[in-house]
Write a structure and sequence with these properties.
- The chain is built from seven helices and four strands, in the order αββαββααααα.
- The chain is mainly α.
- The strands form two sheets. It has a two-stranded antiparallel ribbon with strand order 1-2. Strands 3-4 form a two-stranded antiparallel sheet.
- α4 runs antiparallel to α6 and α5 crosses α7.
- The protein is elongated and about 65 Å long.
C-alpha cells in the first residue's frame, strides 16, 4: 500500500467534509448499497453526512472498476488524512475558543477585540468596528463557530457529551448575543 493509493482511491474528503470511501467486499457493498463488480467485489460510498445517490454509485462502477482488490481494507487503520483534518479542526477551534465557552468568557474576549479595533481606528489604522459589530458577531457564529462546533462532534474525538457542549455553548452565546450584544459593546 502506498500513501497516495489510500488517499486517492480508498478514502477521500470532499469540500463539505464528507468522507468518500471505496470498498470491494460484498459485505461492505451490500451495507452501503453498492453492487457486485468484476471479480465479485462491489463498490459502495458512504459519507459522514449521508450516502451518495445512484448516479454517484454508477460513476464509481463505470469509471473506477479497475481499482483492484481492496478486500484488505481496514477503516480502523491509522489514517494520516483523518489525523490532519482533525488537527486542523482543533486548531480552528482553539483560535475561536471563547465563542465555544461560557457567555462571560465570550463577552470578555469579544469586548477586548472590539476595543482593540476601536483604538486602532482612532489611530487611523482600520475601520470603526462599531458599525455592524453585533451583526458581524452573529454572522461569524452562524457561518463559522457553529459549523466548526458541529464538525468537532462529527470528528468523534470528544465524548458525545463533551462535543455537544461546544455546540450548546455556541448556540446559547448566539441567543444571548442577539438579546444583549448592543449592551455589551455599547
Amino acid at each position: 500500500k502506498s500513501y497516495e493509493y489510500r488517499l486517492g482511491i480508498r478514502r477521500a474528503l470532499d469540500f463539505t467534509g464528507s468522507a468518500i470511501e471505496a470498498f470491494s467486499t460484498k459485505k461492505a457493498a451490500g451495507a452501503r448499497g453498492g453492487s457486485a463488480g468484476p471479480g465479485g467485489g462491489g463498490i459502495g460510498i458512504s459519507g459522514i453526512q449521508g450516502g451518495v445517490g445512484a448516479s454517484g454509485q454508477d460513476y464509481l462502477r463505470n469509471h473506477m472498476s479497475s481499482i483492484g482488490d481492496l478486500d484488505g481494507y481496514d477503516p480502523d487503520e491509522p489514517d494520516e488524512l483523518r489525523k490532519t483534518v482533525v488537527l486542523e479542526q482543533m486548531i480552528r477551534a482553539a483560535d475561536i475558543a471563547a465563542l465555544l465557552q461560557s457567555w462571560d468568557n465570550m463577552v470578555l474576549w469579544s469586548s477586548r477585540l472590539f476595543y482593540e479595533q476601536k483604538a486602532s481606528f482612532h489611530c487611523a489604522r482600520g475601520v470603526d468596528p462599531e458599525h455592524g459589530w453585533v451583526e458581524g458577531q452573529i454572522t461569524f457564529i452562524d457561518s463559522y463557530a457553529l459549523p466548526l462546533a458541529r464538525r468537532l462532534v462529527d470528528a468523534g474525538v470528544f465524548t458525545d457529551s463533551d462535543g455537544a457542549m461546544f455546540v450548546r455553548c455556541a448556540e446559547c452565546n448566539r441567543a444571548r448575543w442577539l438579546a444583549e450584544g448592543y449592551d455589551v459593546t455599547g
